[in-house]
Specification:
binds magnesium ion, binds adenosine-5'-diphosphate, alpha+beta, rod-shaped, Beta-Lactamase, single chain, 5-stranded antiparallel beta sheet
Length: 610
C-alpha cells in the first residue's frame, strides 16, 4: 500500500473513507443545515441521504433535535468541541427499540478565510451498552453469590459440558484455573456417606423431569467438611428430553452448625431443668412460683401433695381463689401486692386442701426477675406448720397450767406456813410466858437471859415465817391491791438485801383483775430477785402505770447488764425470765428486755386491760 502525505490525499480517497466510515458523519453550516453526510448517518437517522442534505437536525430527526441542538449551539458560540456525549432514544426507523450513541461535535475551519462549519460524528454503542449491562448484571450475580454463600452451576447433558460459577469454585475450594470442573469432580466432592442419598434425589428428579432440592455434606480438598443446600432445575428439549441440569448451591454450614449448637444447648437446658425438678421434688417444703397476676407457674411435689391436687390441676390457676380459704382471701391479696412491691417478710397464712382441710403454712418469699431486673413473679417456700402450731399451743397451755398450779401451790404453802407453823409459834410464845411467871426464877441472871433469848428467837422465827408466807403469796394483794403488795415487796427487799428500790405507781391506778395483779406482782418479784442476785446494782426502780388500754410495768437496775452470750447453747438454764415471758404471753401482752453493760437491765412489760 502506498501512503499519501498531507494535501496529497486524493479527494476520491477521502470521499470513499467518508462514505464508508463505520461512524455517522455530518457537516453542518453556521445555520445548522446539513451540508454533507454519509450513508451511515442517513441509516442511523432512518432517512435517505438525499433528504438529509440542506435540512436541519430538527427537520430530519425531530426526536433527537433537543438532545443535539444545545451542543451544536455551544460549539458555534464558543468555537470549542464537545466529545463523546451519550445520545439515547428511539429512531423513526425502529420504533420501540432504545438505541444508544456516543456523539462528538467539533468546529471545522475548511479554508484559511472560509466560514466555520460544525462536524458531527456519532457511533452507535447500543450493543456495547447492552454488553456492559450484562457484564454489570453478571458482576451483581457474582456479588450476590458471594453474599449469599451461593454458587451456580450448569451441566449440559448433551455435550457433557460443565460450568461452575466463580463463587461455587470458591465455596468448594476449587481453583478453576488449575482444575477442570466436571461431573466426576462434583461426585468426588460430595461426602462419601451422602453420595447415595444425593444420587437418589437427582435420579428421581431426572425420571420425573422435576425440579429437586437436596442437602448434603461435601468434603473439600484438604479435608474440610461443609454442608450445602442445592436446588436443581431441568431444561427439556421439544421432545421432553432432559438436555441440561442447572441450579444454585448454598453453603449452609454455619446455619446447620448453629442448629446443632441450639439442639445441644436445648438438651443441656432440658437436663438442667430435669435436675432442678428433681431437687424441687425431694424438697420437704412447698415451693411455689406465681406470676404477676398471682397465677401458679410452678409448684413442686410437696406443694401438690399438701393441696391434694395434681400439678396440671394447679398450673395456671389463680393461687388465692384456688388454694386459700374464702374467709382469709381478703387478707392474702394485700399481702401478695406488698410482696410484689418488695416486702419479703415471713408470713403465715392458711391454705385449703381439695378435701377442705385447712393447713397453716409459714412462707419465706423472694421475687423473680427477668434479665433486665424487672419483677416477673414471686417464688415462695412454704413450711406446713399446722402440727407445730398445735404443739406450740399445747406447750403454752401446759406452761400456763403449770404456772397456775405453782401459784396455787404457793398460796396453799403460804397458808400452811402461816396458819400451821405460825400457830405453833404463837403457842410457843404463850407457853414461854407461862414459864416465866410460874417456873423460872427471874432473879437468876442466867435464867433471865435465857428467857430473853428465847423470846427474841421466837419473835424472829415468827417474822421469818410471815415473810416467807408473804413471799409465797402476798395476802395483802387480795385485800389491799397490787400497789400495797408492791410497797410491801419493795420495802421488804430493801431491808433484807440493802437494795435501794424506788417504787412509782401512778395515782390513777385502780384495782385490776386479781389474776393480772398477781401476774404483775410475780414479774416484779422475779425481776427484783434477779437484780439482787445478778446485777450488782445498789438501786432499782419499779414503775407501774396505766395507758388507755394497757398497763405497763417497768423494772430497771443500774448494774452490769446481762452477760454477753454468743451461742444459743449458752442460754442460762434459769427459768425466771422464761416464766416472766410465759406469764406475759398468757395475757397476750408484750415483753421486752433491754440490757447494756453501762445502763443495766430494764424489763418492760405491757398487758392489755379491757
Ligand atoms: N438484772 C440482771 N442483771 C444482770 N444479769 C441478769 C439480770 N437478770 C437476769 N440476768 C441474767 O440472766 C440469767 C437468767 O435469769 P433467770 O431466767 O431469772 O434465771 P436465774 O436467775 O435462775 O439464773 C441469769 O442467770 C443472769 O445471768
Ligand atoms: Mg432469776
Amino acid at each position: 500500500m502506498r501512503w499519501l502525505r498531507g494535501s496529497n490525499f486524493s479527494k476520491n480517497a477521502l470521499n470513499a473513507f467518508f462514505a464508508s466510515a463505520p461512524a455517522g458523519i455530518a457537516i453542518l453550516d453556521s445555520q445548522l443545515r446539513i451540508r454533507k453526510a454519509n450513508l451511515t448517518m442517513a441509516d442511523m437517522i432512518g432517512t435517505p441521504l438525499a433528504a438529509l442534505l440542506g435540512s436541519t437536525p430538527r427537520g430530519v430527526a425531530p426526536l433527537f433535535a433537543d438532545k443535539i441542538e444545545p451542543f451544536l449551539r455551544r460549539v458555534s458560540a464558543t468555537g470549542k468541541g464537545v466529545l463523546n456525549f451519550p445520545v439515547i432514544g428511539e429512531t423513526v426507523k425502529s420504533p420501540g427499540v432504545i438505541r444508544q450513541w456516543l456523539a462528538s461535535v467539533s468546529p471545522i475551519c475548511p479554508e484559511p478565510e472560509g466560514m466555520w462549519c460544525i462536524g458531527v460524528i456519532a457511533v452507535e454503542v447500543t450493543e456495547a451498552a447492552r454488553f456492559e449491562k450484562l457484564r454489570k448484571s453478571e458482576a451483581l450475580l457474582a456479588e450476590a453469590e458471594q453474599l449469599g454463600q451461593l454458587g451456580s452451576w450448569e451441566r449440559d447433558l448433551v455435550t457433557g459440558e460443565e460450568t461452575w460459577s466463580a463463587n461455587l469454585c470458591r465455596l468448594l475450594a476449587i481453583d478453576p484455573v488449575q482444575t477442570t470442573v466436571s461431573e466426576e469432580l462434583f461426585w468426588d466432592l460430595v461426602h462419601y456417606d451422602d453420595r447415595e442419598g444425593v444420587r437418589m434425589v437427582v435420579d428421581s428428579a431426572m425420571k420425573f423431569a422435576d425440579a429437586y432440592e437436596v442437602q448434603s455434606r461435601f468434603t473439600l480438598p484438604g479435608g474440610r467438611e461443609r454442608t450445602f443446600y442445592t436446588r436443581g432445575k431441568l431444561v427439556l428439549d421439544p421432545n421432553n428430553q432432559v438436555i441440561k441440569r442447572m441450579g444454585l448451591t448454598q453453603d449452609i454450614t454455619a446455619r446447620v452448625e448453629m442448629e446443632h449448637a441450639l439442639q445441644r444447648s436445648e438438651a443441656t437446658i432440658r437436663r438442667e431443668r430435669d435436675r432442678a425438678q428433681r431437687y424441687l421434688d425431694i424438697a420437704d417444703v412447698i415451693l411455689l412460683a406465681l406470676d404477676l397476676q398471682g397465677r401458679i407457674t410452678m409448684i413442686n411435689r410437696m406443694g401438690c401433695a399438701t393441696l391434694e391436687r395434681e400439678e396440671h390441676q394447679l398450673l395456671g390457676c389463680d393461687w388465692i381463689t384456688t388454694c386459700v380459704p374464702a374467709r382469709t382471701r381478703r387478707f392474702v391479696k394485700p399481702w401478695f401486692d406488698n410482696l410484689l412491691a418488695g416486702d419479703l417478710s415471713y408470713v403465715e397464712n392458711l391454705i385449703v386442701t381439695r378435701s377442705g382441710e385447712e393447713r397453716l403454712i409459714g412462707w419465706r418469699n423472694t421475687l423473680l426477675k427477668d434479665d433486665e431486673g424487672r419483677v416477673i413473679g414471686t417464688l415462695s417456700s412454704g413450711e406446713d406448720i399446722t402440727e407445730r402450731k398445735v404443739a406450740e399451743k399445747a406447750v403454752q397451755q401446759l406452761s400456763s397450767l403449770l404456772l397456775r398450779a405453782q401459784d396455787d401451790e404457793r398460796r396453799r404453802i403460804a397458808k400452811e406456813v402461816h396458819d400451821g407453823i405460825g400457830q405453833y409459834i404463837a403457842g410457843l410464845s404463850l407457853a414461854i410466858g407461862r414459864l416465866r411467871t410460874s417456873c423460872i426464877d427471874e432473879t437468876d441472871p442466867d435464867s433471865r437471859q435465857t428467857l430473853a433469848d428465847c423470846r427474841t428467837l421466837i419473835h424472829r422465827a415468827s417474822q421469818e415465817i410471815r415473810t416467807i408466807s408473804y413471799l409465797l403469796h402476798p395476802p395483802t394483794i387480795d385485800e389491799l391491791g397490787l400497789k400495797s403488795a408492791l410497797e410491801w415487796l419493795v420495802n421488804g427487799y430493801g431491808e433484807r438485801w440493802g437494795l435501794q428500790v424506788s417504787l412509782e405507781v401512778s395515782a390513777t391506778l385502780g384495782r385490776l383483775k386479781p389474776e393480772i395483779e398477781l401476774t404483775l406482782f410475780r414479774i416484779a418479784q422475779e425481776s427484783l430477785i434477779n437484780i439482787h442476785r445478778h446485777s450488782q446494782s445498789p438501786t432499782a426502780l419499779v414503775r407501774l402505770f396505766q395507758r388507755p388500754d394497757e398497763i405497763v410495768l417497768e423494772v430497771a437496775d443500774r448494774g452490769k447488764g446481762m452477760p454477753a452470750r454468743t451461742r444459743e447453747s449458752e442460754r442460762s438454764s434459769g427459768i425466771g425470765i422464761l416464766a416472766i415471758e410465759e406469764r406475759v404471753k398468757q395475757w397476750k401482752g408484750h415483753f421486752n428486755l433491754e440490757s447494756s453493760p453501762d445502763k443495766g437491765v430494764t424489763i418492760h412489760v405491757t398487758l392489755p386491760v379491757t
